[in-house]
């Protein structure tokens, strides 16, 4: 429901308008079918009346009539109004707005004085419909003043320049909700909101504030009033949730539906935290709902009593708006048909307290705000009245509203901030039941944003009745606090408020509740049993009488034993060197014997024994460190014995086995025998069809050859995914490395708006930031979004970055290249990815002027032996037997003619760089099945049944080399290792185009060897031989420092010259260095040089002047000049003390003489001279410090002495 207001000239009946008035649109949503107009109220299509909205209409009319009676505000101008109903519907709201904007009858009837027919609109109640209203009226600059639309989105003055509200933005309410929850110690809450602009924006503010306050959200769900299925899901989520506190950022209508469902299902015990949209609504607090909602807590508008309104609402309103409401008898045909108002007339006896409708004061203030704005525009002056000739347009009202500042009769100051909103001022209310069974909204605190931060929020918890009528505050935490002796360990995949309490390890303690870490006890101390205190260690010894001691001694009798005195450095290194020598000899022997026949080759036994040896001593370190007391000695002895017996067992056990159990093999003939080579046979019982689908007992597998998105590395979401291409994690980092290597710090970024492009670009941007590369812009588009493509091209044209990184799929890149060619956008150095860098379809004569010189990563060119002949000869004969026949005579062949035309396509197959990945993918499946089917020379096991999960596990273990030399295996994410070529788009001397390899990136190499590029072989953008520059700001030379430009990236800076006495001797210095005391900066400010010694000469003009005044001073004042040797500390303090003593004596004399007659009292002269004295010497300090060379000790000092000396005279 909303209203309009208009004004015309004076109220003189002789004027052009008999009933001049200001018509202002006022709006809020209502469930009633009501349409009111002035001076007679008319209702049409009445269906259901909302008491809340009816009261708001009453207070609006009350305020208008009160203003019309005020002789000072608008003395000779009256306000009028019309009320429209939006029925709480966006569609109905739009219809009502159109009715306002197109009401010709109203315009012709009321616009008799040349004024605009609409000066202001007040409304609506809900943010969603207010957004529609403000967007519709915005182009006409008609001010809209809402009394309850609190969505933060409406603070955007760019989108809503003429919107105002007498309620504060939800920016404050969302933060206040987080403050309330934090104050009450709840760290585990649920969140429910309306699925509209109001709920979504408000909940976002709360969630961000809650995160900063350390509050965890178990769930955040939403629904709209027309979505019963989502409502049911919300209720089910609340029922299953473990959070006992629910923050409901819900509008009035959605809250009614939610409470109905909670009541029907009898879901109790939840502490609801509400917003002013519903927390103080009388319609929601009933006997049927109180068992569910009792104890609710939340922020509400303050209760305000408007003097005169209750009497008006109960009596005067009905007497004027509905004359038939107090008459009896029949009515003539010319009178109002009172039966039309039956639904409204029943409200005449509704005696609910008006003050509980907390929005009425906001409507009242909104109407008065319009009145004060018009008062200013019409230049109203008391008895003189308002200016009749002024023509007011809506945009003038907007500007006047920005400046209103007044106080209404109930004491509240009204003004609008820069966003057009009022300042936040809430009550904290609690749903309670009185002893007589009635319900009330008990005020238990407040939030006032106008106060200092530490005084804004006050809550009296002693007056609160909690959910379920409890007097004790409910607990709502995901995990209970961890006591001393434990530490918090966040549960995997859950918020930080959900943790386990892990006891501290031995030797560690925690002496606070909810400790994040345990502290290590000092070396001589140990943790007590409770792990909350460090105590001195008890000295323990390993006794020969203990079972462990006896066992270790027994096995030690069989071992090579060296006993060294404690702390013997020589003995320690002797033993360690001996062990290392043995290990080295064994490895050398194993290497030399690697080519011997298996029966003579014991390299595998030696190697395995050495692995056991290493494993024992690697595990020894953590075991020794973590073993308490005497057990550390036992661990050391065990490690020595285990490694010794491991060596003996691995080397000699196989020989003993042959001697004792296989004597037939212990012969010379067997030792001299030769083993036959074995041939691996693959998949005897399985077939691989032409579609690269492996079928074995109806089993199928998928391995991608080109899907590089990093998102596919998530083994939780894609547990059975593999690929023979590397993840874009490597390519994104490699792109940043390439850009950094070439010295470009200012680049643009374009990507496909897909998972591939978004994930890849995110990786590049993160890596670029770490490398110190600044990104001027990052834009994206999808192949079907032509408008976004045009914006991308426009951004590239307007940019100052000469290098653009294109993380694009082939389809998007082809569209971008087409647009760049059409618009002739040249001179941009494009950096590409494997998705398009080596695509023959993109490199054409029509695109090369734009794309020539492009640089990027590509898959390596690999020659697969036999593949070219197979494609050119055997493939067509076997797959298309009709390829040599006349296609027109064979129906089967005619269906394949689109494929057969490719037979004469002789492009080099090696340029199809993804072919090798497909080849490796097929072989990976073959090797996996070879393992599962236990294939041998005789064939594969036919009886084995293979399940998909078995193939997945087998693929994880494949490790083989294909015939063209590539090693194939999958890492933990199911991907291949990164191995790229760096290619450059060049034109050959013959005119043909080529992808010239100019470097590589191989992730299998050490970090300092992975990337190599030969810049001498590169042709740059536009066919240039010189590398282009792409920086935001040129380097700062020595003698200057960098100063980052405000609001821009760190690569954009100004070069500020160093100050006098400071230097910078490097390019791009961040700071200037201060020269030592005896030095000064040279003219270029890049070097410190010795200061030149200067003297004040008697022949200089300044010296002559100073000597003259000095002599004059001696002759008139007999002043004594003290000359001290340079650097005399005693002399300095003597002179300074003497001056101070004189000053003190002068002040004392002035004080004692203050009561003498004026003719004898010179206190004021002495005081004034002392003030001058102090002022001169205070200014001496900065002047002395800033004066260069000889002017420092002489000119400034002498001038200071002269000044205060002559002033004293």
From TrEMBL:
Residues 560-675, 1120-1209 form the G-protein coupled receptors family 3 profile domain. PROSITE patterns: G_PROTEIN_RECEP_F3_3, G_PROTEIN_RECEP_F3_4. The keyword Transmembrane helix applies. GO terms for molecular function: G protein-coupled receptor activity. The chain crosses the membrane at residues 541-561, 573-593, 605-625, 637-660, 1095-1118, 1130-1153, 1165-1185, 1191-1208. Pfam families: 7tm_3 (PF00003), ANF_receptor (PF01094), NCD3G (PF07562). SUPFAM superfamilies: Periplasmic binding protein-like I. This is Extracellular calcium-sensing receptor. It comes from Triplophysa rosa.
């Amino acid at each position: 429901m909303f209203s309009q207001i208009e004004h015309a000239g004076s109220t003189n009946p002789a004027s052009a308008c008999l009933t001049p008035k200001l018509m202002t649109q006022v709006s809020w949503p209502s469930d009633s079918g009501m349409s009111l107009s002035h001076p007679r109220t008319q209702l049409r299509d009445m269906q259901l009346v909302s008491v809340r909205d009816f009261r708001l209409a009453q207070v609006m009319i009350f305020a208008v009539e009160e203003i019309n009676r005020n002789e000072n505000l608008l003395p000779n101008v009256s306000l009028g109004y019309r009320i429209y109903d939006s029925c709480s519907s966006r569609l109905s709201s739009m219809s009502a707005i159109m009715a306002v904007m197109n009401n010709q009858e109203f315009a012709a009837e009321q616009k008799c004085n040349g004024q605009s027919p609409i000066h202001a609109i007040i409304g609506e109640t809900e943010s969603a419909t207010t957004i529609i209203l403000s967007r519709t009226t915005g182009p006409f600059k008609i001010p809209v003043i809402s009394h309850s639309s609190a969505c933060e989105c409406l603070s955007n003055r760019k989108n809503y320049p003429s919107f105002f509200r007498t309620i504060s933005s939800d920016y404050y309410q969302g933060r206040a909700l987080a403050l309330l929850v934090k104050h009450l110690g709840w760290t585990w809450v649920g969140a429910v909101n309306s699925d509209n602009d109001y709920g979504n924006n408000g909940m976002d503010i709360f969630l961000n504030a809650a995160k900063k306050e350390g509050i965890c959200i178990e769930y955040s769900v939403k629904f709209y009033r027309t979505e019963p299925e989502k409502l049911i899901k919300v209720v089910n989520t609340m029922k299953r949730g473990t959070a006992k506190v629910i923050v409901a950022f819900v509008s009035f209508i959605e809250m009614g539906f939610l409470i109905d469902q909670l009541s029907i299902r009898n879901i109790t015990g939840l502490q609801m935290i509400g917003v002013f949209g519903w927390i103080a609504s009388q319609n929601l607090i009933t006997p049927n709902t109180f068992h569910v909602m009792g104890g609710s807590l939340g922020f509400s508008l303050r209760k305000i009593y408007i003097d005169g309104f209750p009497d008006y609402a109960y009596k005067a309103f009905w007497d004027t708006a509905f004359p038939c409401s107090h008459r009896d008898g029949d009515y003539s045909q010319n009178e109002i048909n009172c039966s039309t108002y039956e639904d409204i007339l029943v409200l005449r006896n509704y005696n609910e307290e008006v003050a509980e409708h907390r929005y009425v004061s906001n409507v009242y203030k909104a109407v008065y705000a319009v009145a004060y704005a018009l008062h200013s525009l019409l230049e109203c002056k008391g008895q003189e009245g308002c200016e009749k000739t002024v023509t007011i347009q809506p945009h003038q009202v907007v500007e006047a509203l920005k400046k209103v500042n007044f106080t209404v009769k109930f004491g509240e100051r009204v003004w609008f901030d820069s966003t057009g909103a009022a300042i936040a001022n809430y009550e904290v209310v609690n749903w309670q039941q009185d002893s007589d069974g009635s319900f009330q909204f008990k005020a238990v605190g407040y939030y006032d944003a106008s106060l200092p931060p530490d005084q804004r929020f006050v809550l009296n918890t002693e007056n609160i009745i909690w959910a379920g009528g409890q007097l004790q505050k409910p607990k709502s935490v995901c995990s209970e606090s961890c006591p001393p002796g434990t530490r918090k360990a966040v549960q995997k995949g859950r918020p930080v408020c959900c943790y386990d309490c892990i006891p501290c390890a031995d030797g560690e303690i925690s002496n606070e509740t909810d400790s994040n870490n345990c502290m290590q006890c000092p070396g001589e101390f140990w943790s007590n049993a409770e792990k909350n205190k460090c105590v001195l260690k008890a000295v323990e010894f390993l006794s020969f009488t203990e079972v462990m001691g006896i066992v270790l001694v027994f096995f030690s009798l069989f071992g090579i034993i060296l006993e060294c005195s404690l702390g013997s450095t020589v003995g320690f290194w002797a033993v360690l060197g001996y062990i290392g020598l043995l290990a080295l000899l064994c490895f050398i022997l194993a290497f030399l014997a690697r080519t011997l026949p298996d029966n003579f080759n014991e390299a595998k036994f030696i190697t395995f024994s050495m692995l056991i040896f290493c494993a024992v001593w690697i595990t020894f370190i953590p075991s020794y460190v973590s073993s308490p007391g005497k057990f550390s000695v036992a661990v050391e002895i065990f490690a020595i014995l285990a490694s010794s017996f491991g060596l003996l067992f691995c080397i000699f056990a196989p020989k003993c086995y042959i001697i004792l159990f296989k004597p037939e093999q212990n012969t010379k003939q067997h030792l001299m025998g030769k083993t036959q080579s074995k041939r691996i046979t693959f998949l005897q019982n399985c077939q691989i069809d032409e579609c690269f689908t492996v079928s074995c007992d109806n089993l199928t597998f998928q391995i991608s050859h080109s899907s590089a998105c990093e998102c596919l590395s998530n083994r939780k979401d894609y547990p059975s995914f593999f690929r023979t291409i590397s993840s874009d994690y490597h390519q994104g980092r490699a792109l940043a490395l390439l850009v950094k290597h070439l010295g470009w710090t200012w680049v643009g970024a374009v990507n496909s708006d897909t998972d591939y492009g978004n994930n890849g670009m995110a990786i590049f941007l993160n890596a670029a930031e770490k490398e110190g590369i600044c990104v001027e812009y990052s834009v994206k588009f999808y192949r079907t979004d032509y408008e976004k493509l045009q914006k991308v091209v426009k951004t590239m044209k307007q940019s100052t970055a000469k290098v653009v990184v294109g993380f694009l799929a082939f389809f998007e890149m082809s569209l971008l290249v087409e647009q760049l060619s059409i618009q002739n956008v040249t001179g941009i150095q494009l950096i590409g990815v494997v998705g398009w860098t080596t695509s023959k379809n993109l490199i054409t004569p029509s695109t090369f002027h734009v794309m020539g010189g492009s640089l990027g990563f590509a898959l390596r060119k690999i020659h697969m032996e036999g593949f070219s002949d197979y494609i050119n000869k055997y493939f067509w004969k076997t797959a298309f037997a009709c390829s040599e026949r006349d296609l027109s005579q064979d129906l089967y062949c005619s269906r394949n003619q689109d494929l057969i035309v490719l037979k004469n396509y002789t492009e080099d197959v090696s340029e199809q760089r993804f072919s090798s990945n497909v080849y490796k993918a097929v072989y990976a499946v073959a090797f996996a099945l070879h393992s599962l089917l236990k294939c041998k020379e005789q064939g594969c096991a036919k009886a084995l049944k293979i399940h998909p999960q078995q193939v997945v596990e087998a693929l994880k273990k494949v490790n083989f080399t294909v015939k063209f030399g590539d090693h194939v295996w999958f890492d933990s994410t199911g991907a291949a290792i990164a191995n790229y070529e760096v290619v450059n788009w060049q034109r050959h001397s013959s005119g043909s185009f080529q992808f010239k390899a100019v470097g590589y990136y191989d992730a299998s190499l050490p970090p300092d060897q992975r990337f190599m590029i030969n810049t001498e072989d590169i042709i740059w953008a536009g066919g240039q031989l010189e590398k282009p520059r792409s920086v935001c700001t040129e380097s700062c030379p020595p003698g200057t420092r960098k100063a980052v430009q405000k609001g821009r990236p760190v690569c954009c800076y100004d070069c500020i010259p160093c100050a006098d006495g400071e230097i910078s001797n490097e390019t791009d210095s961040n700071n200037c260095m201060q020269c030592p005391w005896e030095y000064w900066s040279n003219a270029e400010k890049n070097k410190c040089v010795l200061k030149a010694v200067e003297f004040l000469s008697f022949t200089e003009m300044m010296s002559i002047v100073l000597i003259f005044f000095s002599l004059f001073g001696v002759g008139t004042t007999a002043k004594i000049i003290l000359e001290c040797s340079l650097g005399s500390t005693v002399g300095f303090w003597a002179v300074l003390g003497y001056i101070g003593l004189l000053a003190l004596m002068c002040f004392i004399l002035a004080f004692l003489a203050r009561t003498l007659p004026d003719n004898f009292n010179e206190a004021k002269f002495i005081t004034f001279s002392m003030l001058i004295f102090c002022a001169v010497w205070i200014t001496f300090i900065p002047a002395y410090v800033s004066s260069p060379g000889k002017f420092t000790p002489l000119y400034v000092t002498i001038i200071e002495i002269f000044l205060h000396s002559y002033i004293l005279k």
